[in-house]
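Title: Comparing notes on inverse folding

I've been comparing how different people in this forum approach sequence design from structure. To keep things fair, I'm posting one structure and asking everyone to reply with a full sequence. Here's the target:
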């Protein structure tokens, strides 16, 4: 099977979450956690799970294609687990050999392509008018191609952030702060990975919206409005509620991170003169906000982040107008955009 097609079939959000789990495992093992065997058991099971089969059904690929993809993904995941285990723990070599034997058996198997109930339901819709549930969004190209994917993306971001925060709180409550401090970087890693995955949603939204007759200026205006809601609420809560300054700083950090991610997705040969300076300024503001948090200074970093986001909103129509939405640009280099033909 074509390596390019194999990469496009990789479930990026699933792998992003898997990498966060691997980071948690490495941190737990390196701090001497008593739960290391539980970590290993959970991560070992995750690393041996196969990719979803629905894309292979949709594209009409064969059982051989699916198993090739399955073996590559499982082998990479298992290799990561073994490397982390060897570098961070003194686990007896017999356990590692036993895991590799199990992984080898899983790799040798040749199962059929799995199929979910959702894809089977799609077969039943083939003879209908094609109309499906429009959800709670307007039945317009703005509602379905801009608002719906971006709002759902933010629902995913908020869910992951809440889950990571809950896990960190549980770790802090059950164990001493010194042990829990080894996990302080996990929310940062999770946020960056999830936002990079979210970039694919933004790029796809622009491409599909323009393909159906929408204007790039309208997309830019809606995108900056939608993506300012959650960070804006965090900033407001941090200002209104006494002692919640960190929440305001978190909202500001999300704003400039989002500005960098949007600009990254719009960076192509024809637009880099606008997007690269915006990315550089957003990165500098992110560092400034982080330094402000470390020093307990919030007002100026938050105001700077808000100002940077407003300037980015004014420049986004120009970035969207200059970018080649079918090239992929830097997003393609990260494997987050389809390749034009």
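Reply #1:
Here's my take.
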């Amino acid at each position: 099977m074509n390596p390019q097609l194999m990469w496009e079939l990789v479930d990026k959000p699933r792998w992003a979450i898997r990498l966060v789990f691997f980071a948690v495992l490495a941190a737990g093992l390196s701090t001497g956690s008593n739960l290391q065997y539980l970590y290993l058991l959970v991560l070992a099971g995750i690393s041996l799970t196969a990719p979803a089969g629905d894309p292979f059904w949709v594209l009409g690929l064969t059982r051989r294609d699916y198993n090739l993809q399955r073996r590559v993904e499982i082998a990479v995941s298992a290799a990561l687990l073994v490397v982390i285990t060897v570098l961070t723990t003194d686990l007896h070599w017999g356990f590692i050999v036993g895991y590799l034997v199990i992984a080898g058996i899983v790799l040798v198997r040749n199962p059929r392509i799995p199929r979910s109930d959702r894809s089977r339901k799609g077969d039943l819709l083939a003879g209908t008018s094609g109309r499906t549930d429009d959800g709670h969004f307007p039945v317009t190209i703005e509602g379905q191609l801009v608002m719906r994917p971006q709002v759902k993306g933010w629902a995913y971001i908020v869910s992951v952030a809440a889950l990571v925060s809950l896990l960190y709180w549980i770790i802090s409550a059950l164990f001493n702060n010194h042990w829990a401090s080894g996990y302080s970087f996990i929310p940062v890693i999770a946020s960056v990975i999830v936002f990079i995955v979210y970039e694919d949603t933004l790029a796809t939204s622009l491409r599909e919206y323009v393909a159906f007759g929408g204007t790039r200026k309208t997309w830019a205006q809606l995108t900056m409005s939608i993506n300012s809601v959650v960070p804006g609420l965090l900033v407001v809560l941090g200002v209104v509620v006494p002692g919640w300054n960190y929440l305001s700083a978190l909202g500001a950090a999300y704003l400039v991170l989002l500005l960098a991610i949007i600009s990254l997705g719009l960076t192509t040969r024809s637009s880099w003169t606008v997007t690269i300076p915006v990315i550089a300024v957003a990165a500098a503001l992110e560092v400034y906000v982080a330094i402000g948090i470390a020093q307990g200074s919030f007002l100026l970093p938050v105001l700077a982040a808000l100002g940077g986001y407003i300037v980015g909103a004014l420049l986004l129509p120009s970035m969207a107008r200059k970018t080649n939405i079918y090239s992929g640009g830097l997003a393609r280099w990260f494997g987050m955009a389809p390749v034009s033909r």
